[in-house]
Amino acid sequence: MSLRMALLGLLASEGPANGYTLAKSFSGSVSHVWKASHSQIYPELARMSDAGLIEINEEQQPRRAKYYAITAKGRDELERWLMEVEPNRSIRNEIALRSFLLSNLSREKAIILIEREIEYYRERTDKLKELRTMFDNSSDQKFGHLSAELGLRISEAIYGWAKWARSEVEKQKSTGTDSIS
Amino acid sequence: MSLRMALLGLLASEGPANGYTLAKSFSGSVSHVWKASHSQIYPELARMSDAGLIEINEEQQPRRAKYYAITAKGRDELERWLMEVEPNRSIRNEIALRSFLLSNLSREKAIILIEREIEYYRERTDKLKELRTMFDNSSDQKFGHLSAELGLRISEAIYGWAKWARSEVEKQKSTGTDSIS
DNA sequence: CTGTACATGTAAAGTGTTACATGATTTT
DNA sequence: AAAATCATGTAACACTTTACATGTACAG
Fold it and tell me: pLDDT under 50 in chain B at which residues?
C-alpha cells in the first residue's frame, strides 16, 4: 500500500504528472523516504486508475505520455490511510544486522567494517545537512522539510553509533585469530 | 541474502539449532535487527543445506526435529559476505514516508498523527534502554550489545524528531480547513 | 545522424507475509 | 483428557529488483 500512498501524495501536492516524472521523484527527493523503480510504478498507476483513485489524460500529450491526476476518491483514500491505518514501524536495516554478525569476525576485521560505516554516514550526514539548508531557505508551506530532517537525524544517529562501536570493539582484547575460524 | 546470513550468524555464534529455535530468535533478540517467520526460515534452511552452508542431523532428535550446524563453507561465506559485499544501506521507513505525506492533512490532523509517534517512540526507547541495561550486566564477549545500542539510538532519534516536528507544525498558521479538500 | 533524455511497458526471479495444515511431546 | 508448546512444512498472495523490449523527440 505504501507505494500507492506515496504516488497519491505526490499527485496531490504537486499536481498531475506522468509516470516518468513520478519515477524520477522516486530517485530524487522522495528517495530518502521511499524507493521505487518505473517497472513497479507503471503497473501500480494502472491499478490505481482501475480503482478510481486517479484519472488518466492521454490526449494531446507529447511522446504518447499519460498524465495522471488524483481524484476526490484518491484524496479521501490517502487521508483515510494516514489517519486510520496503523503504521508499519518495522525497520529493516541491513547495517543493524551486520553489526549483530560482527562477533563472527576478528577484532581487526570488525574494525575495518565499522570504519567503512563511519565514513559512509559522515558523508551522508553532510549531504543531508546541505539539503536541510535548501529547505530552510525555500520557506514553503509543505512539510517536505520534516522528512528531510528525519533522514538527517537517523543518519547522525548511525554515525554517532558507528564511532562509539569502534571504541567498544577496540576496548576488547584481541585474540590474535578470527573468532569464526 | 540477508536472511541467509542472519541464520548463518546465529548458527555460528550459538551453535547447532533446529528451525523452531531459530524462528524464536527472529521474534526475540534478533527481531530488533531482522524479522523472519518460520514459513520463510524452513525453506531457506533447506536451500542452505543444498548449497553446503549447513549440515542437517535428523537422527535421534525428539519430535522429528532437524538440527542444523554451520559448515566450514558456511563460515567462509558469512565472512566473505560481511567483508566483500557492499551493504544495502537503504532504509525502508514507513514513518518517514508518512511524514512526507503530512502536508496533505490539516494542521490539526497532522498533529494527531505526530503525537501517536511521540508516544510510540517514547515507549520503545524506554524498552530498549532496559534491554541495554541487561547487556551491560551480562558482560559477554559477543557484540549483541552493539546492535541493541544502534536500535536504541535510532529510536531516540525518531522520538526527538517527532517532538521537534510537532512544534514545527504548530508554528504554521492554521488554514481552518484540510489542505487536501 | 547519432546519442541522450523522455516515455511506457512486460517478464522473471527473488523476497516477504498470511493463512492453511499436520503431528509430537509436555504440562495442567 | 485437554491445552499449550514444540516442530515442520506448503500455498497463495503481495511486493521488489533486474533484465528485457520498444518507441519518441530533441540536442549536438
Answer: 181
Angle between helices B94-101 and A72-84 (to 10 degrees): 130
Asked which of A13-22, A48-57, A126-135, A161-170 is least confident by mean pLDDT, the reply is A126-135
Helices (H), chain B: 2-14, 19-25, 38-50, 72-84, 94-101, 107-138, 144-171
3-class secondary-structure state, position A92: strand
- Give the tens place of pLDDT for each residue, A134-180: 877 776 667 778 988 999 999 999 999 999 999 999 988 655 555 55
| B34 vs B29: CA distance, rounded Å | 9
Footprint of strand D on the protein (CB under 7 A): A 1-3, 35-37, 39-40, 62-64; B 18-21, 23-24, 38-39, 42-43, 45-46, 62-66, 90, 92
Question: Which residues are CB-contacts of B93 (< 8 A; sequence separation ≥ 6)?
Answer: A33, A91, A150, A154
* Count of residues making up chain A: 181
Question: What cell numbers appear for B34 in the block?
Answer: 531482522
Residue of A79, A104, A113, A114 to mutate for B, most B C-beta atoms under 10 A: A104
Residue A122 has pLDDT above 80, yes or no: yes
Q: Is A133 on the interface with B (CB under 8 A)?
A: no
Using a cut of 0.85, tell me whether the model's pTM lies above it: yes
